[in-house]
Amino acid sequence: MTDQSTAPAADRAARDLHAFIAALPKAELHVHHVGSASPRIVAELAARHPDSKVPTDPEALADYFTFTDFAHFIEVYLSVVDLIRTPEDVRLLTYEVARELARQQVRYAELTVTPYSSTRRGIDARAFMDAIEDARKAAEADFGTILRWCFDIPGEAGLEAAEETVRLATDDRLRPEGLVSFGLGGPEIGVPRPQFKPYFDRAIAAGLRSVPHAGETTGPQTVWDALTHLRAERIGHGTSSAQDPKLLAHLAEHRIPLEVCPTSNIATRAVRTLDEHPIKEFAAAGVLVTVNSDDPPMFGTDLNNEYAVAARLLDLDERGVAELAKNAVEASFLDAAGKARLAEEIDTYTARWLAA
Ligand SMILES: O=C(O)c1cccc(C(=O)CC[C@H]2O[C@@H](n3cnc4c(=O)[nH]cnc43)[C@H](O)[C@@H]2O)c1
Ligand SMILES: [Zn+2]
C-alpha cells in the first residue's frame, strides 16, 4: 500500500475526488432495470431458475459480460431477461437495484423498464406493475431513493412491441404512478426511428416525456430523427452527435440534454477508447451533458465510476463534478420543488467538503 504522506499530490487529489464523488448526492437518468442486476441478484435469480445458461460464479459472469459488439451485448442482455419469470423476481430485482443506487448516494433515478419483455414472457401486466410499484414505494421508504419509470420499446421487436408498450404506458388501469417517460432501446441498425412516431405521439398525449436512445450505434441522422419524429426531450447516448456540428449547436441552443454513458460505449464497442469519447466535444459545444451508468454490472461500472471517468475526460475538480451532478437534476423530470431540493443538497454538500 502507498504511504499517504509520500504519495504524489496528483494521486492524493484523485483519491480525494473519488471520495467526493462517492458521497455526492446524485441523480441517475439513464439506467436499465434488467441491466442493473448485480452478480448477487443474477445468482439469486439463477438459483430460482436453475435451467438458465447465465453463469452465477462472479468470475465466469465477468467473462460472460465481455461483449464483442452491440449485437452480442443484446444477446447476453436477453439471457438475463429470461431469468425474470415471476412478479416476485421483478420485485426482488427492482428493490435490489434501488439498494445499489442508494449505496451510491443516488437520491433520484429514472429507471428504464421494458415491460414488453416481461409480459411477452407470460408475466401478467397487472402483477408486473404491482411488483415495480411495490418495490418503488418500499425503496423510497427504506433507502430514501426516489425511483421513477421510463417504459421503453425494444425497437428490434417491432411495432407489435411498440403497441404493447404504449398500451401498458397509457391504459389508466395499468399505468403505474411512478411512470414519467417513454423510450426506445435496443439496436438502432435496421430500426429506423420515424416508424415509432404514432406510439410516441400517444405517449406524449398521455403526459409522458420522450427519451429515446439515438446515435448510440448509428450516425447523427438518427438523433435528428429522434428530435423531429419522436419529439425527444433528452437523447439516450447521442454519441454520434459529435460528427455533426449543426446538431451539436441545435442540442445546445434548445437545451436538449445528452444522457452520456462513457463506459457503456466502450463495452459495446460503440467507441474505441475512453480517450476518444466525444464527451469533451459535447461540453465544448455547450450541450447539457449528464453522466449515467446504463447497465452498470454488465459493463463493470457504477455511477460513481462514470463520474470519475467524466471528471478525468473533462478535467473537472470538485466544483466541476458538482455542476455535472446539477446538470442531471436540471435534465430530470423531477418537479420544480424536487429539483430545487436536490440542487441545494448538492451545493451544501460541496460547500462543506471544500470548507473541510
Ligand atoms: O424481450 C424481447 O423479447 C425482445 C425481443 C427482441 C428484441 C429485444 C430487444 O432488443 C431488447 C433490448 C433491450 O436492451 C435494453 N438496453 C439496455 N442497454 C441498452 C443500451 O445501451 N442501448 C439500447 N438498449 C439497451 C433496452 O432497454 C431493451 O429493452 C427484446
Ligand atoms: Zn441505455
Automatic annotation (TrEMBL):
Its cofactor is Zn(2+). Its EC number is 3.5.4.40. Pfam families: A_deaminase (PF00962). One of its GO terms (biological process) is menaquinone biosynthetic process. SUPFAM superfamilies: Metallo-dependent hydrolases. Residues 25-348 form the Adenosine deaminase domain. It is an enzyme of class 3 (hydrolase). One of its GO terms (molecular function) is deaminase activity. Keywords: Hydrolase, Menaquinone biosynthesis, Metal-binding, Zinc. It catalyses: 6-amino-6-deoxyfutalosine + H2O + H(+) = futalosine + NH4(+). Pathway: Quinol/quinone metabolism; menaquinone biosynthesis. NCBIfam families: aden_deam, PRK09358.3-1. Belongs to the metallo-dependent hydrolases superfamily. Adenosine and AMP deaminases family. This is Aminodeoxyfutalosine deaminase. It comes from Streptomyces echinoruber.
